[in-house]
Amino acid sequence: MIKNLLFDMGGVILPMRPMTEPVRRFGELGLTPQLAGEYFGRTGQRGIFRQVEDGSLSAEAFLEAYEQLTGYRAGFADIEWAWRGFVHATPPDRLACLRELRAEGYHLALVSNTNPFLQRWAESAAFSAEGKGIGDFFDRLWYSYELKAYKPDALFFERLLKAGGYNAEECLFLDDSEANVQAARHMGVPSLHVPDNQDWMIPLRQCL
């Protein structure tokens, strides 16, 4: 029996923008397109961009490393703005679906590879048109930089299940990355692959 619905953020809750937008924004902060190509990926980041998401680099240390990499002294708000280039505005219909599922008694958790910069925005009133942060739509928020592990690593799911007290067979995990979905299934977590930016409510209902 499924009791816990575990949602990825980018590509599932938040539609993803074309990679040209974060490249443009970070480019205004000194990151060349060549470097962006080395560090950015649709399914995950590399280098210091990966480290700030897997928790091995703090936000403050990231800012220092970013200056060393680019020669540009960016502030927290600058990097937050640039990282928001990865995602579109929050669709109200997806938030309505989350409310519906919670009203039916499901435990909803956000399970995301993310970073402190993007999450400061996501947890603020700017996240939704109604002035509510992402935490108002979920029972728990699980971030890679706090778990200090990164999907699709098995350690991420091990720590998630232990910290949340979840029974794997009582969960359903939704992610736009096939690698993440396969990793979760390997850990015994029923999972649903959601193609990037596509509606997930109907296939989700078919799994419940």
Mean pLDDT: 96
Backbone shape: globular
Compressed to H and E, one letter per element, the order equals: EHHHHHHEHEHHEHEH
In terms of DSSP E residues, the strand content is 5-15%
Total count of helical runs of at least 4 residues? 11
The biggest sheet amounts to:
5 strands, parallel
What is the number of strand segments? 5
The level of helicity is 40-55%
Strand order of the largest sheet: 3-2-1-4-5
Unreliable stretches (pLDDT < 50, length at least 5) are none
Indicate the radius of gyration in whole angstroms: 17 Å
The structure class reads alpha/beta
Multimeric state: single chain
Report how far apart the termini are. 8 Å
Explain this structure to me?
By secondary structure, this protein is an alpha/beta fold. Helix content is 45%, strand content 11%. The chain contains eleven helices and five strands. Strands 3-2-1-4-5 form a five-stranded parallel beta sheet, sandwiched between helices. Helix 7 links the parallel strand 2 (107-112) and strand 3 (140-143). The longest helix is centred in the N-terminal third of the chain and has 12 residues, at 59-70. 36% of the residues are buried. The mean pLDDT is 96.
